[in-house]
Amino acid sequence: MSEKVNAPEISVKNVSMVFSDSKGNPVQALKNVSIDIQKGEFISLLGPSGCGKSTLLRIVSDLLTPTSGEVTVCGKTPRETRLEQKFGIVFQNPVLLDWRTVRKNIRLPLEMMKVPKEEQASRIEQVLELVGLKEFGNSYPGQLSGGMQQRVGIARALAIQPDILLMDEPFSALDEFTREKLNDDVLSIWRKTNKTVLFVTHNISESVYMSDRICVLSPHPGRLSAIVDVNLPRPRVPDMRGTPEFAALVEKVRNSFEGI
């Protein structure tokens, strides 16, 4: 008897996206992209600028509507899933309000969702603990480093208790040391929460270190060139970056790009 295959949590079928440039000419950002993502997977969308990886993330999250193709999330449309508050989104810039403390920044989406105040407080303390900022809840964004600000952004996304965490190049503006520390922090959070993570990056080593699978996108037009399985053991540890197995995967991913 064959094993039952679970339906994917996120299904992208033949998705294309065409924008108009400043002169009204069509520009194809994505062409016939298809990806299935299972519940609990950590998936990276990897590629250079202009390959459509952030566009694809925005389509999944209902921030953009594709020109053609179909996306389902949890068996529903992206819009239905968004309205059910099942997405937590982390952008490159955490967009914190300077006049609100860390706690009050995390509280903002909970206020909008009309979560009862007692539950708000409980959730805020839980996510502060999860991202290692318990002692900074009363600090203001201007008193935090860039890495700490990004952790607040992650905590705010987790506070709504989403099923799916969407991360759009969240560490690209950070120095290498901070970036690698946050890689480990996010993997720790992922292990503890069992979220499905869709992670956009242009850093090959980062994608290999973090992912179960890497969706390699090539530009002009944005298209899926390869899906690379990352068979490194978990939990991932920093020493893995120096192993021959890691280097071989980095090389395999690098060789998967087309037209660059």
Automatic annotation (TrEMBL):
InterPro entries: AAA+_ATPase, ABC_transporter-like_ATP-bd, ABC_transporter-like_CS, ABC_transporter_ATP-bind, P-loop_NTPase. It comes from the Bacteria. Residues 10-244 form the ABC transporter domain. Pfam families: ABC_tran. SMART domains: AAA. Keywords: ATP-binding, Nucleotide-binding, Transport. The keyword ATP-binding applies. CDD domains: ABC_NrtD_SsuB_transporters (cd03293). One of its GO terms (molecular function) is ATP binding. This is ABC transporter, ATP-binding protein.
